[in-house]
Amino acid sequence: MVAQFVPDTDRSDAGTTSAREAGGDVLHVSGLTVEYVTGGDPVRACADVTFTLRRGEILGVAGESGSGKSTLITALTRLQRPPAVTTAGSIVFHPRDGGPAVDLVTASPKTLRALRWTSLSIVLQSAMDALNPVMRLGAQFADALRTHDRTLSKDDAWARAAELLATVGISGDRARSYPHELSGGMRQRASIALALACGPELVVMDEPTTAVDVVMQRQILAQVLRLRRTLGFAVVFVTHDLSLLLELADRIAIMYAGRIVELGTARELYDDPLHPYTRGLRDSFPPLHAPLTRLTGIPGTPPDLRRPPSGCPFHPRCPRRFEGCDAHLPELVTSGRSDVGGHAVACRLHDPTVRPETTAGGPA
Ligand SMILES: Nc1ncnc2c1ncn2[C@@H]1O[C@H](COP(=O)(O)OP(=O)(O)OP(=O)(O)O)[C@@H](O)[C@H]1O
Ligand code: SF4
Ligand SMILES: [Mg+2]
């Protein structure tokens, strides 16, 4: 666990600015629902997920283990495998060149192949999952580069591989190394460089720094921010570590039981979390710039998604639940306070049509 960071909204590469400068949206996700269908009750691991990603923006996705983060990432990239099935919704990708929008949920394998690497790429938690252990790094980069640019010679592709490795702080001569000859942090940085090799517009990253130490984590995040600034790609960055996202992301989506329960800028979620779950997550990390206080954490455990609770899925753990929370599922509603699309929350406390006159006093 790392200490809690204060989001730096003055930093020059803040995505609210870069997204505005770049203009437009790169991705519209609407009503995305993904289930694991295993014979018994289906596990609805993503339920009605809706968000927009702007060009050049870093959207962080945080939530406890089992909240559906990886399911979302694999669905976004259409890399999910059975028993996962996308049962509803759309993922509309808008190419930078103004070409026709593509719904990734229904796109043909040929369309998806054309988009992978050049428009859309992924960084996984374990670099070994992305790198081929029996190929030199340079050969893997050359493969990706030459698949999408048939005019590129082998020598030029290897030279480009060395340049790409240098952008993530790895000496170009390591292009001749096999993955097992690098440290874990170097492999992770190499897999980020590989994901960026063909200049994608969107990179999705699933816990890319979980396997490395805090120092390496800082270096990798700094490189992601720097590369985003120079190359302008958008990122969906998944982690269970909210404090890390407060520093890195422009906006943050909080997931609970497969649903987005709050979405806002890093500053909004840090200063004024609206959902009791977000507040609990925030208060689970020690503050870096304020006196230490007792960490409260969130009592209870996430629900079994085969049989999610009725009503608001957080109600069995919620310290602020009140009458009706166990019966009514709150929708994600935008308050309109954010300058980049609205601070949205799915909690009846913020629904003007509901009056929380009776509080149940939270979980027993
Ligand atoms: N192959 C599978 N079959 C059935 N259920 C699955 C399968 N894979 C994941 N799930 C369920 O889907 C839910 C979401 O899992 P997912 O891996 O997306 O969570 P996560 O937020 O990425 O968790 P973590 O932080 O541990 O990586 C969990 O309840 C999990 O048990
Ligand atoms: S809807 Fe009710 S139970 Fe759910 S988070 Fe809000 S107050 Fe808590
Ligand atoms: Mg995961």
UniProtKB/TrEMBL annotation:
Residues 27-282 form the ABC transporter domain. Residues 1-20 are annotated as: Disordered. InterPro entries: AAA+_ATPase (IPR003593), ABC_transporter-like_ATP-bd (IPR003439), ABC_transporter-like_CS (IPR017871), Oligopep_ABC_C (IPR013563), P-loop_NTPase (IPR027417). Pfam families: ABC_tran, oligo_HPY. The keyword Transport applies. The keyword Transport applies. GO terms for molecular function: ATP binding. Keywords: ATP-binding, Nucleotide-binding, Transport. This is ABC transporter ATP-binding protein. It comes from Promicromonospora kroppenstedtii. The lineage of its organism: Bacteria, Bacillati, Actinomycetota, Actinomycetes, Micrococcales.
